[in-house]
Amino acid sequence: MIGLLIITHETLGEAYTQLAGHFFGEVPPNVRILGVRGDDSPQTLVEGAQVLLAQLDCSGGTLMLTDIFGATPCNTAQKLIHDDNTLMVTGLNAPMMVKAIQYASKSNNVHELATTVQQAAINGIMIIDYNDVSHCDAETRS
């Protein structure tokens, strides 16, 4: 099992908690979410994240997901990477989070999971143009 720590700005973490509940009924026991407020000190954030990590079953490693590379959640997560069994993927989006939660409890290879999660994030971003929408409209009108 891989432990997941999701670190985001403000209430994004709460929104992702609700999304996890929507898809999975509840937040699985191998997932913790930390919301970063503007007035949180870096030391307080690292300590809070360490407490959350200690609550996880990380026998297969730890994957941390953060929203924006280079921002406070990312910087906090970077301070928690102490070995090759702890990874971070930045650019959190809903497809990434769903894939991570879906597979983390079944996986024991954090590197493979990180790659799968990264690909889910990329695949979840689509450009829909007028032709795509027009085609859909024609099908629903028939």
TrEMBL record:
Quote the InterPro entries the UniProt record gives: Bacterial_PTS_sugar_comp, PTS_EIIA_man-typ, PTS_EIIA_man-typ_sf, PTS_IIA_man
One Gene Ontology biological process: phosphoenolpyruvate-dependent sugar phosphotransferase system
Question: Is RNA-binding one of the keywords?
Answer: no
Q: Which residues form a coiled coil?
A: none
- One Pfam match, given by its short name, reads EIIA-man
A GO term from the CC aspect? cytoplasm
Location of the PTS EIIA type-4 domain: 1-125
GO molecular function, a single term:
kinase activity
Q: Which UniProt keywords apply?
A: Cytoplasm, Kinase, Phosphotransferase system, Sugar transport, Transferase, Transport
What is the protein's major site of localization? cytoplasm
Q: Does Coiled coil count among this protein's keywords?
A: no
Compartment annotation: Cytoplasm
Which PANTHER family does the entry mention? PTS PERMEASE-RELATED-RELATED, PTS SYSTEM MANNOSE-SPECIFIC EIIAB COMPONENT-RELATED
Report the protein name in the record: PTS mannose transporter subunit IIA
Q: Which organism is it from?
A: Paralysiella testudinis
